[in-house]
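seq as requested:
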Amino acid sequence: MPLAVLALPQSEVVAVVAPPGADTTDAVRIIAKAGGTVLNRGGSDNVLLARSDRAGFARRLYAAGARLVLDGSLAEGCGPSAPSPSSLTTAADTAGNLP
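struct tokens:
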């Protein structure tokens, strides 16, 4: 018998999949109810990349109605890329070193 193991994402950035038939507005509501911030849209109207600094974001997303929550790194290529906070810091540090 096949066995699937599901783990809650541990990264700050996650891909949030709203239930079938949901649109972008529905997905935004789920993220807002879970205390997150929308980063950008994924490949479908019901898929958004989001983040939260508070622990337990994935659990709150499921409680708010998300159908699936994936680690944001798994969603690369599903839509426009969102810079990570660390890449923004690195870019700012590098820009400060320019002549």
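Helices lie at 24-33, 57-64, 85-96.
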